[in-house]
Design goal:
The chain is mainly alpha-helical. It folds into two domains: 2-157, Helix Hairpins (Orthogonal Bundle); 203-244. Helix content is 81%, strand content 0%. The chain starts with a helix and ends in a 23-residue tail after the last helix.
């Protein structure tokens, strides 16, 4: 089972690696950083809002404390010590609330400053990442274009490979058809294959006449060659073929030839 799981994970990782586009990964990372920066900014805004609310409460309490002090002074001026004591007691209780709120205010102010600094640092990192991201994307796009151009020139790209295979198949089929046509022509000329259309078909009489004519031509040529080898002139059919008159035999004498008297009436 472990082996099957390892094989599955390795194949899945390989498939994901082929499908992954670095540009899309960079854009996704940049988007996540922007979302984090937005969360930090919202945190800063929330802390600032809370700080401002405490600041308003402190202002109100301080105003109320000052009012109690004025009331105590006025009561003493009127000889009402009891009212002055009550006013000062309320001022003391309110001062305790003021102290607590001031402590919370200082904490929120420190947290706001801390988050503001973190937001500024994160903003700088996001800006730097954006610049680097765009540079990497441009470099990757240029390298991808150069690779495709090089593959097209070398013929190893998938598209050009398909075109090359199609051309090769077309050339092979063309050569096969040419060879088949030539073979059929040779078979038809030799008579080994009948012409189904009946065009150019020879009957047995015409074939025999052509054979006899071909044999006569061979005999005439043979006689001519024999005469040339013997040093004499060709005679018989060879002489007739060359258009020369047939010579009398060498053993014949002139007196043996009968004379014809053309003056006889």
């Amino acid at each position: 089972m472990k082996r099957m799981g390892l094989i599955f994970r390795s194949k899945a990782n390989k498939a994901l690696d082929r499908a992954e586009d670095p540009r899309e990964t960079l854009d996704y990372s940049y988007q996540k950083q922007l979302e984090l920066l937005q969360k930090v900014r919202r945190g800063v805004a929330d802390v600032a809002t809370s700080r401002k609310r405490l600041e308003l409460q402190l202002t109100q309490l301080q105003q109320q404390s000052a009012k109690y002090e004025d009331q105590g002074r006025k009561a003493l001026s009127l000889g009402r010590e009891d009212l002055a004591r009550e006013a000062l007691t309320r001022k003391a209780n309110m001062q305790s609330q003021i102290n607590d709120l001031e402590t919370q205010y200082q904490q929120l102010q420190a947290e706001e400053e801390k988050l503001t600094l973190a937001s500024q640092r994160l903003q700088a990192k996001v800006d730097a990442f954006r610049t680097k991201k765009e540079t990497i994307k441009a470099t990757y796009t240029a390298a991808q274009a150069q690779t495709r151009i090089a593959e097209s020139f070398s013929g190893i790209s998938e598209e050009m490979g398909d075109v090359g295979l199609a051309i090769q198949r077309a050339e092979d089929k063309t050569a096969q058809m040419q060879a088949r046509a030539g073979a059929i022509d040779e078979l038809l000329a030799s008579g080994a294959l009948d012409d189904a259309s009946g065009l150019g078909r020879k009957d047995d009489i015409e074939a025999e006449l052509e054979r006899v004519a071909g044999g006569s031509d061979v005999e005439l040529e043979l006689a001519r060659m024999k005469a040339e080898l013997s040093g004499g002139s060709p005679s018989g059919p060879a002489a007739i073929e060359q258009g020369k008159p047939q010579q009398a035999p060498q053993d014949a004498h002139p007196q043996d030839t009968p004379r014809i008297n053309y003056n006889k009436g």
